[in-house]
Every structure is written in C-alpha cells, then in structure tokens.
Amino acid sequence: MAVAPINEVRKVINYAVTVIPPKKIMMGMPLYGYDWALPYTPRGEFAESVGNREAVDRARRYGAVIRYDQKAQSPYYNYIDEERRQHVVWFEDGRSVEAKYKLVSEYGLRGVSYWVLAKPFPENWQVLDNMFNIEKVIPAR
User: Which GO terms describe its molecular function (predicted)?
Assistant: First the structure.
C-alpha cells in the first residue's frame, strides 16, 4: 500500500476542512517509502523505511521496473531479494509530491509539514520550488 495514497489524503482533507479553517491546516508530507516483505501478515514484520532516492537505487540494483499507481498517485515496484523473498516497495517521487502539493492549492491549506527530513529527496525541493513562491522569513530579534 502506498505511504500516502492521494485518494486517502483527499478524504482526510475533505473531512478536516469541515471542522478546521483551511488556512490553519498543515498537510503532512512523507519524504520516505516502505519496503514490505511479502506476503504481508497483520501483526507481522513491519516494513523497512527507505529514502525515496534509496528506493530508486534499490529498484535499479534488483532490476525492478518502477510502476505508477494512478489511483494512489504513487510509484511502486516488486523485486525478489537474495533470500528469494518477494518485496513490494512504495515511495514518493516528483509526480506523487506534485499531486499532493496540488491539494494544498486546491483546498487553500496553510502549507505542508515534512516527516523524515534526514532521507535525501532532492526532487521534492525542485517540485516545491517550481510550484510555489517560496518566501524565507527571518524572525525579528
């Protein structure tokens, strides 16, 4: 399952704006992906958190084809590791974050807040810069 499927994010925002003014809402933005060992079993082993760049590198290493789920607006791929275990990896890319940023504009939200800044994801910053007018605010002393 995608980390933050756009259809589910939209459902949450649809509800949130009925109880909170949109300009007070900061949408969470994941800057990571998950590598799930298959078959997934509830209460079983949780997925490995991976950076988005790391996810692409892993796909390349295993010769996996990256696909894009149109409903979730999220990239993913399957691969088999050295121990012959099947995996599915869901992560974010420029297309998926652009879809989420469009929701911010569509609903007039205050902005976004990021989760897991420590994992490199330069595409996010490029999309952000291309879509929005970024103002750096220096607090008064």
Answer: oligosaccharide binding
Confidence bin at 6 (pLDDT 50/70/90): very high
Into how many domains does the chain fold? 1
Question: In the numeric block, which tokens belong to residue 14?
Answer: 């649809």
Q: What is the mean pLDDT of residues 107-123?
A: 87
User: Would you say residue 119 lies in a domain?
Assistant: yes
For residue 119, the domain's CATH number is 3.10.50.10
SS3 of residue 9 by DSSP? helix
Alpha-carbon distance 116 to 24, whole Å? Answer: 22
Q: State the pTM of this model.
A: 0.88
- Asked, for residue 100, whether it belongs to a domain, the answer is yes
Q: CA-CA distances (angstroms) from residue 56 to 17, 89, 140?
A: 35, 10, 41
Residue 138 included in any domain: no
In 3-state terms, what secondary structure has residue 105? Answer: helix
Q: Is the peptide bond before 39 cis (omega within 30 degrees of 0)?
A: yes
The single-letter DSSP state of residue 103 is H
Strand pairing partners for 74? Answer: 69
Where do the H-state alpha helices sit in 52-120? 52-62, 94-107
- DSSP assigned state of 23: G
Tell me the residue type at 93.
D
